Amino acid sequence: MQCKSCNTELPKGAKVCPKCGEMVDDKHSGNLKVIAVIGLVIALVGGLLPFVQNTDEITDAYSFMSIDMPVLWYIQIVVIVAAILLLVARRDMLSIIPTAISAIIFIVAFVAMDFRLYSSRNSYDVFKLTDLLSKPGYTIGVGTYIFVLGIIVAIAGCFIDIMKYFKKDLGVDKRFLSNSINQSIWKKMYYYRGFYLMFLPVLIMVLLFNYWPMLGCRYAFTKYVIKGPYYAGLYHFNQMFTNDIYFWQAFKNTLILSIIKLILNTGAAVIISLLLNEIVSLGFKKAVQTIVYLPHFMSWVVVASVFKMILDPNPTGVVNSILLDWHLVDEPIFFLGSEQYWRGTFYVMNVWKDTGWGTILFLATLSGISPDLYEAAQIDGANRWKRLIYITLPALANTIITVFILNLAKVMNLFESVFVTMNNAVLNVAQVLQTYIYNKTFSSGNSDYGYSTAVGLFKSFVGMILVLGCNYASKKVRGRGIV
Amino acid sequence: MKKTVKKLAAVGLTLTSVMSLVACGNNNNDPGSDNGDGNNGSKEVTKPTDEIEIMVDNTVVTEANGGEAFYKYLQELTGLKLKFIRPDHNGYYDAVASAFASDAQPDVVLLSSDYYALYASNGFLWNMTDAWENSELKKSGRLIATADNIFNSLKVNGEDGTKAMYGFSPYRGNGCCTFIKQSWLEASDIDLTKVQGVTMDWNTYYGYLKQMAADKGHYVISAPDFISMEAPYTNYLPEFYQKAEFTFYQNASGQFVDGFSEKAMQDALQRLQDGVKDGVLDKASLGQKTSDARNKFFSTDASSESGVFTYWAGTWANTLKQNLDSKSMDSRLIAINPIKELGTYVERLAPAWCITNDAKNPEGIFKYFIETMLDGGDIQTAWEYGAKGTHWDDKAESVTIAKKEDDVKTYKDGEFHFLPSPEKPDTWMSKNHIDPILALAKFKTTDPGQDKMTQIALENGEWFATVSKVATPLPMTEVLGLNITDINTARQEVISKVTLGEWTVEEGMNQYKSKVGKNVEECLKSLNSQK
Question: N or C: which terminus of chain A carries fewer CB neighbours within 10 A?
Answer without folding.
Answer: C
